[in-house]
Amino acid sequence: MGGRVTRVFRNFNVENRARREISKEKPTPAPRHRTARLDTMADSPEIKEEVLRKDDRFLTLLKDVYVESRDPPVQVKDGRGEHLPRKQEEKRLTKLGHLEALDVKKVSKGKISLVEALTLLNNHKLQPQIWTAEKIAAEYSLELKDVNSLLEFFIPFTVMEFPKETKKAITSHKPKQLT
């Protein structure tokens, strides 16, 4: 919508404005600087002589200048100062189940591996009286609030198999028609 409005103002009386611009007298160009005229005078013999003449005063000053260049000494890196010291993380061995080949061997304290997470969720689901949040926190070196959040928000999948007669009943059921 805004493009239409701006186009109307832009195209308003465009022909008259163009004719007015064309009919104006052309402005006179600005005068050239005198250095531009030196290029044409560069062919003159006086200027060539001035350029090729040696000035003794400048030559003596140039002879007094002495530049000495040396490369800085090469520093050998021994690799000792490259790494900053960092906090040592306490590691614990994982509780390996039947998926031992898929799991990592060591995990930082306060963290669990994927196989451990699935195992503890399944244990809690099957036996919630034995595998309480406190026992899981102690067993896997976790904080209690993290374990409570894990048990509350993550639920392992359940595989349910329906008997054949239930399947027939479900498929034969006619959906209600909406009127």
Describe the protein in words.
This protein is mostly helical and about 180 residues long. The chain has a domain at about 90-155. It is built from 9 helices and 2 strands, in the order H-H-H-H-H-E-E-H-H-H-H. The chain has helices at about 1-10, 15-25, 35-40, 45-50, 55-65, 115-125, 135-140, 145-155, 165-170; strands at about 90-95, 105-110. About 5% of the residues are buried.
Features:
mainly alpha; 2 strands; 9 helices; 3% strand
Helix and strand composition category: mainly alpha
Distance between the termini: 43 Å
Largest sheet: 2 strands, antiparallel
- Helical percent range? 40-55%
Strand order of the largest sheet: 1-2
Task: Write down the overall mean pLDDT.
Answer: 77
Number of strands: 2
Radius of gyration: 45 Å
Name the poorly predicted regions.
none
Estimate the strand proportion: under 5%
Order of helices and strands: HHHHHEEHHHH
Number of helices: 9
Shape: flat
Oligomer description: single chain
Pfam families: UPF0240
InterPro entries: NDUFAF4 (IPR009622)
Protein name: NADH dehydrogenase [ubiquinone] 1 alpha subcomplex assembly factor 4
GO cellular component, one term: mitochondrion
Short description:
47% of the residues lie in helices and 3% in strands.
Write the layout of secondary structure elements.
Blueprint: H1 2-11, H2 14-23, H3 34-41, H4 45-52, H5 56-64, E1 91-93, E2 106-108, H6 114-126, H7 133-140, H8 144-153, H9 164-172
Antiparallel strand pairs: 1-2
Helix pairs in contact: 7-8
